[in-house]
Write a structure and sequence with these properties.
Elements lengths: L2 H20 L9 H22 L9 H23 L2
Helix pairs in contact: 1-2, 1-3, 2-3
């Protein structure tokens, strides 16, 4: 992976993570670095799931892929928040 790919992954991860936080009600007690990390993971896993479903490469904007990624980010933020609150 080239440096441009890494920068793109971080940028999209931040966007996906932030959107994942926005769809959740209330305040989440995790930092923005964790949000970006969850977003990056959700973007990668969501892209893989979209590829398996055959909706990763469509004409125009890949709305289904974005929905899968944002849903995974919301699940990841929720899971991380619950894990950290147990401590």
């Amino acid at each position: 992976m080239e440096i441009s790919g890494i920068i793109t992954a971080i940028a999209f991860g931040a966007i996906i993570g932030a959107l994942g936080r926005l769809v959740l009600p209330g305040r989440q007690n995790i930092g923005w670095l964790w949000t970006i990390a969850v977003g990056i993971a959700a973007a990668l896993v969501g892209t893989a799931i979209a590829a398996v479903l055959g909706v990763a490469d469509t004409k125009g904007i890949d709305w289904i892929e974005w929905a899968v990624q944002i849903g995974l980010a919301a699940l990841g933020v929720t899971a991380l928040e619950r894990l950290r609150s147990r401590r």
